[in-house]
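Project outcomes to date are best conveyed with an example. Our students and postdoctoral researchers have been running inverse folding experiments weekly, and each run begins with a structure described purely in tokens. The record below, which covers 193 residues, was selected by the lab manager from last quarter's runs and is presented without edits.
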């Protein structure tokens, strides 16, 4: 199962040191954009919270719940789970965010995940996520010293799937970030339930 590969990869790889070498101004911009849409105390769900970098920051203003395969975030409420299998109450969050984790989701499972996120959000809730941009049915191999899995659609498909899940897209942008290995392209989407 792909979640087992991803879980093992993040337990063994050097992601936590590698991330500090990434030049990614878009991430900060989109976090600020999401923050501007919410009132203090809003309920925020972060899928793939990792070590909790954004979740801790967001918890200064909001009630944050993080979900990750490997619970290593401190200072926030964390659910150690595969968010593809997770069930949460309907309308239990005001926003759902993720930062570059949808490219670990088998792309045939992306539409059902987006439908679940739509249910988890309260009416008017916000959706901010970064998607992969390549036509990759699925790739398993070594990444940063551990096994991993990647899969993605091209931007027009991502956009269509978000709309089909019932979201109204407010902003949809393809952005290039600089990883130590070279430039990488992602699609950021801000949408509302």
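After processing, the design step wrote out the following sequence:
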């Amino acid at each position: 199962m792909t979640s087992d590969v991803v879980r093992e990869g993040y337990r063994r790889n050097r992601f936590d040191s590698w991330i500090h070498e990434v030049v990614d101004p878009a991430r900060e911009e989109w976090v600020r954009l999401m923050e501007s849409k919410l009132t203090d105390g809003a309920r925020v769900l972060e899928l793939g919270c990792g070590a909790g970098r954004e979740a801790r920051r967001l918890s200064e203003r909001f009630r944050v719940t993080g979900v990750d395969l490997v619970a290593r975030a401190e200072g926030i409420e964390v659910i150690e789970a595969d968010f593809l299998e997770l069930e949460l109450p309907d309308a239990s969050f005001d926003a759902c965010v993720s930062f570059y984790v949808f490219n670990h989701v088998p792309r045939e499972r992306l539409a059902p995940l987006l439908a679940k996120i739509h249910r988890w959000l309260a009416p008017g809730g916000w959706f901010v996520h970064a998607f992969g941009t390549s036509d990759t049915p699925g790739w398993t191999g070594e990444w940063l010293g551990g096994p991993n899995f990647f899969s993605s659609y091209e931007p027009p498909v991502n956009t269509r799937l978000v709309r089909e899940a019932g979201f109204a897209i407010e902003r949809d942008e393809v952005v290039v970030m600089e990883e130590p290995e070279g430039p990488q392209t992602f699609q950021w989407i801000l949408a509302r339930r």
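The longest helix spans residues 25-36. The mean pLDDT is 90. The training component of this project remains on track.
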